[in-house]
Design goal:
InterPro entries: FKBP-like_isomerase (IPR051989), PPIase_dom_sf (IPR046357), PPIase_FKBP_dom (IPR001179). By secondary structure, the chain is mainly beta. Helix content is 13%, strand content 32%. It has helices at residues 3-23, 88-93, 210-216; strands at 24-26, 32-37, 53-61, 67-70, 77-80, 102-107, 129-139, 146-148, 154-159, 174-182, 188-191, 199-202, 224-229, 250-260. It is globular, with a radius of gyration of 23 Å.
């Protein structure tokens, strides 16, 4: 074999190794990602980033390959990247993906369900999680205004709907709301995304805390907001133990997913 051919083969091997490194990597804290279905650059018009709402197919397995759960062939799981709506490892694993891309992901326990595990799926404390994930679709928000109401409730439009396309929520309308709730120190409290189903209520009928009625009055269908509700308009001085201590201000990310006008229910 001549030297030129050997050189060419060597360069090819190096090139292949570099390409493999781009498709597979391990981060310092143990998160492992391998792209098993890449999307060509010319077909990848947008890559997922923090703030995007993503639609995801997933399969979760244990170390022996036994399936724990999967939604492939079913309704995609929907969440917003970087908002604490999923485990830390999944937030990172789904970042930088093209629509249609599929990855195998290994998430160490500290980036998964931590020391407590998740009893309903028989996930033990500090258990390593083995996922196959696919980005089905993504939505990138169009930020709007920020203001404070007379009651001291802070509202920020993280995705606004233009006036000519706005179906506005008014008293008596039925709202399908997706939400994530944290406390001021960042402690996660609850999320409709964990149930993969919206919270449904009638606006201004006392079905929710007063601050939420105020925060969603006049909201457009499809709009997303960050809302800070003072404890006086939340759960008050007593709170809602054990998750919500007394006098806790509430930090919500909310989406008005669907709006049903009162006359449409007939």
């Amino acid at each position: 074999m001549n030297r030129l051919l050997i050189l060419c083969l060597s360069l090819t091997a190096v090139f292949c190794e570099e390409e493999e490194q781009k498709l597979s990597w391990k981060e310092d804290d143990g998160l492992e990602i391998k792209i098993i279905r890449p999307i060509k650059a010319e077909k990848c018009k947008i890559k997922s980033q923090e703030g995007d709402t993503v639609e995801q197919f997933y399969k979760l397995s244990d170390k022996d390959g036994k399936e724990i759960g999967s939604n492939f062939g079913k309704k995609p799981y929907i969440f917003t990247l970087g908002q604490g709506q999923v485990i830390k490892g999944m937030d990172r694993a789904m970042t930088g993906m093209c629509i249609g891309e599929k990855r195998k992901v290994v998430i160490p326990g500290k980036l998964g369900f931590g020391d407590n595990g998740r009893e309903r799926d028989a996930i033990k404390g500090d258990q390593t999680l083995y996922y196959t994930v696919q980005l089905v679709d993504l939505f990138r928000p169009n930020p709007g205004k920020k203001w404070e109401t007379e009651e001291g409730i802070t509202i920020e439009q993280t995705h606004k709907i233009e006036d000519d396309k706005c179906r506005k929520a008014v008293t008596g309308d039925t709202l399908h709301q997706q939400y994530t709730l944290h406390l001021e120190d960042g402690t996660f409290v609850d999320s409709s995304f964990s149930r993969n189903a919206p919270f449904i209520f009638k606006l201004n009928t006392g079905a929710v805390i007063k601050g939420m009625d105020i925060a969603m009055d006049g909201m457009c269908e499809g709009e997303k907001r960050k809302v800070v509700i003072p404890y006086e308009y939340g759960y008050g001085e007593e709170g809602r133990p054990p998750q919500i201590p007394g006098k806790s201000n509430l930090y919500f990310d909310i989406t008005l997913e669907k709006l049903i006008k009162a006359n449409e229910e007939l």
